[in-house]
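Bug #77: duplicate submission created two jobs. Keeping one. Sequence:
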Amino acid sequence: MGISASLAAGRIVALSPDDETPIDLKSPAVAAVLSWLVPGLGQLYQGRRQKGVLFMVSLLTIFVVGLWLGGGRVVYASWKPGEKRWAFLCQAGIGAAAIPALLQSWRLEGAAKQPVLLSSFMVPPLSRGQPVSQAYATELARVDPDIEPEDFRPLPPWRQFRPFPPPGMLDRTPADQLSVWHKQLGRFFEIGTLYTMLAGMLNALVIYDAFSGPMHPAPRDEKKEKR
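Kept job's structure:
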């Protein structure tokens, strides 16, 4: 496939693959950024309303369905050693809808030791021995049936989630929070992850379309067809 584009009067113009109608791409860089922030927003900025609405509704629907299937837990950012969430690199392609995951990760793993509003939405799972605030420990024990107040050990001024026992002692402590999520959600955790990743990856095509205009089919080779 190729892209037909020209520079006319200082504006970048692409040609519609349907009827060769000129399409004013305005500022392709701005359109690409807008389509990353919200799928289809760059196309709306360029006046391509039908395509913009189609992209926006379809991709955000896929993303929201994935979030719903995963109980709001499948989109999170974590770069802890051994617990890197590589799936988030694809999920981040959806733009603004994934940004809360970065904020929640920064809050939980930073000085605050708790997410925004103590909400578990897009919050990375706790690893064994991870310190959290007293307020967040209390909230988790209240809303999660698989987490008890006894799962947190005092670590002033924080609370430590399911710390490892001293060397030589038998470890009878349940697993980390990610294992709890897999137990609660079953296959829906992976399905939700797949949906949200797919939405982010498909938006890469939307961004490309906003930057370069619609793609054209390869030209037909009439000589080969006659043969």
